[in-house]
Amino acid sequence: MEHYRTPVMDSARWAGFEHRPGDIVISTPAKCGTTWTQMLVALMVFDGPDFPAPLDLISPWLDMCNRTVADVTQDLDAQTHRRFVKTHTPLDGLPLHDGVTYVVVGRDPRDVTVSMEHHRNNMDWDHFFELRAEVMGFDDLAELRRPGPAASPDDQMAAFLHGDEFGALASIVHHLDDAWSRQDTSDVVLVHYADLVTDLPGEMLRLAGALGIPLSDARARELSAHASLEAMRARAGELAPVASHANWRDDDAFFRSGAIGEGRAAMSADHQAAYDARLAALVAPRIGAWIDAGRIASGVDPAA
């Protein structure tokens, strides 16, 4: 099992976590629609928009180093509803269990890198590191690079295209390709951000079917309305990840309207050519088409 670690998260925190049959693990590269997917699952689990606690406490990011593992697992152990836990760790870094469904969400990596820069600029890093210091100190930080805005747009693009850190193209593609390869051996469901944008009620129905949650067409339309960008932004204080620990400069700004294709539009022709070549070197064409555009636009069904 691979070990993934950054100043923000550590996949080793999954060691010893006791799963229950029916658990859902939402495993995504960052900025691919994690919170959106958590919201869809929450709406189905609770059959409506009234939740018993903020979303980040109902569906915590177990790997994140701003709370002790004991505190997080205590919250999860106390839950009596069907549990759904967030992670940005690829499946090859998780202890996989029978009876657990792994929902893996993809997005055009070019759009991810645009969204990630907004994300980094909105995060209150000083406050996060205050919390991290309380949980685990700073002794390990010398070997880890503290995240933050890129030094320049050129540096950002170079790191995205050719780096291997979380958020880089290779990291995103590995996460999705690894999940794709496990569909025959584990209960893995692949979802795509572009498909959620194109047909949110339809994708909610598809996800419900994979999770074994009864859901009619009419109810999917009703529930998915609560997962629109506007509806979620109106509840930013209870829906934004780690909002309960004040990790954002602006909770509302987390729910940014990220347009499909904005990353491609921001790329030069040279950078686009480098992206195409790098993607082709990392993954098979069929999977690459799905990663870039999703199931609906590409015609590639991961489950087929």
| Biggest sheet descriptor | 4 strands, parallel
In terms of DSSP E residues, the strand content is 5-15%
User: How many structural units, i.e. domains?
Assistant: 1
Based on CA atoms alone, the radius of gyration comes out at 18 Å
Instruction: Indicate the CATH class.
Output: Alpha Beta
Described by the principal axes of the CA atoms, the overall outline is: globular
Q: How many strands in all? A: 4
Tally of alpha and pi helices: 16
Q: What is the rounded distance between the termini?
A: 27 Å
CATH topology: Rossmann fold
Helix and strand element order: EHHHEEHHHHEHHHHHHHHH
**Poorly predicted ranges (pLDDT <50, ≥5 residues)?**
none
Amount of helix: 40-55%
By CATH, the superfamily comes out as P-loop containing nucleotide triphosphate hydrolases
Mean pLDDT: 90
Strand order of the largest sheet: 2-1-3-4
